[in-house]
C-alpha cells in the first residue's frame, strides 16, 4: 500500500502511539510506502529519504502503486514561502509550510480534493550560492526535535530542507548526512553552503550546520541561529564558550 500526506504537517513517530517520540514530520504532498499496519497506525517509509516511522492512518490519503510511481518519477515542485495556502473544492484556505510538495496537484487521480495553489513555487537545482538565501528563511525558527518547518525544526531537518528547496537530496539524520559528500581537511577549504558536523564524547555525530562566509555557521540549536565556527567547533558569543565539537566538514555539491 501507498499513501500521500494531504494535511499541512503530520507527525512521524518512533512507535505507534500518540505519546511516542517525534522523529520527523510529513509535509503536505510527501508520499510514502506503507510497510505495516497496527490498529489505527501505519508504519511508513518516506519516498524522499527512505526514513521510517509511524503515522496515524487518519492523517493521509491512500494512493495506488501506479500513482506512487508517477509521483516518484516526476520533478519535485515545492512551495517557496514561509507559509502559503492551497484551496480545496469548497474554496477553503489550507495553510502549508515552506517546502511542501506540490507535484501531485497536477495528477487528477490523486488530487481528489481539487487542491489549487497560486503561491511561490520552486523546482530543479539552484546554484550553491542560493543555499544561504534559503537558510535565512528559517532564521529564528524554534528548535523542535523531529521538526522540519519554520515553526519548529531540528538541526538535520534544517539542513535537509534547505538543500531540498535548492534541488539537492540529503538524508534525514545528522549521522546519515555525515556519510554523504566529500570530506575536507580544513575549514579554510570550505565554501558557503558546505556542511559542518559535530560529535559528542563518544564520537557519535549529533549536530550539523551550514557554513557561511568569514567563519560563521547557521544551525538549529535552541533556534536557528548564527554563531562563530573555528577549528574546535561552534563558539557561542552570548555565553562565551564552545557549544559543539567539530568532527568533519563535508562538501555535498
How many H/I helical runs? 4
Largest sheet: 6 strands, antiparallel, barrel
Q: What percentage of residues falls in helices of 4 or more residues? A: 10-25%
Instruction: Calculate Rg over CA atoms.
Output: 19 Å
Report, as a whole number of angstroms, the end-to-end distance: 34 Å
Tertiary shape: globular
Order of helices and strands: EEEEEEEHEEEEEHEEHHEEEEEEE
Give the oligomer, counting copies of the same chain as homo and different chains as hetero.
single chain
Counted beta strands: 21
- Class derived from helix and strand content: mainly beta
Strand order of the largest sheet: 16-17-18-19-20-21
Mean pLDDT: 97
Proportion of residues in β-strands: 35-45%
Low-confidence stretches: none
Description:
This protein has 253 residues and is mostly beta strands. The protein is built from four helices and 21 strands. Strand 2 and strand 3 form a beta hairpin.
Provide a concise account of the structure shown.
The protein has 253 residues and is mainly β. 13% of the residues lie in helices and 40% in strands.
List keywords for this structure.
single chain; about 250 residues; mainly beta; six-stranded antiparallel beta barrel; globular
What's the arrangement of secondary structure elements?
Blueprint: E1 2-4, E2 9-13, E3 22-27, E4 31-38, E5 41-46, E6 52-56, E7 61-63, H1 65-73, E8 77-79, E9 83-87, E10 93-97, E11 116-117, E12 121-123, H2 130-137, E13 148-149, E14 152-153, H3 155-165, H4 174-177, E15 182-184, E16 195-199, E17 205-211, E18 216-221, E19 223-229, E20 233-236, E21 241-251
Antiparallel strand pairs: 1-4, 1-7, 2-3, 4-5, 5-6, 8-12, 9-10, 9-11, 13-14, 15-21, 16-17, 16-21, 17-18, 18-19, 19-20, 20-21
Helix pairs in contact: 2-3
